[in-house]
Amino acid sequence: MSAPNPLPTYVYKILPSAPPKPLPDVLPLSDLDANDGFIHLSTASQVPGTCGRFFADATELWLLKIRLQTLENGTGEVRWEAAGNSGVFAHLYGGKFGAEEVDESLKV
């Protein structure tokens, strides 16, 4: 499947607990990201569905707001891939992100 058109300005990394303060230069991979070989990201419109599907038991979540262009200009490769019937999601392969790439950390 192809990337959304137009591309979103931001993508989000969902965390089940607060990120470290201050944010490190490189955030550690989640177990899921390490096992899958890429970093799972969601667009703003995908965040509610992703939270409901994978984090339904969480009482709080954290969203890391990341400018997509920052990731695309980095060391990794952003691929837009289908995830079942849920649509096309951004996956970051071979890249990393941390304090420099995260524009905002939001508790939800």
From TrEMBL:
Pfam families: DUF952. InterPro entries: DUF952. SUPFAM superfamilies: ADP-ribosylation (SSF56399). This is DUF952-domain-containing protein.
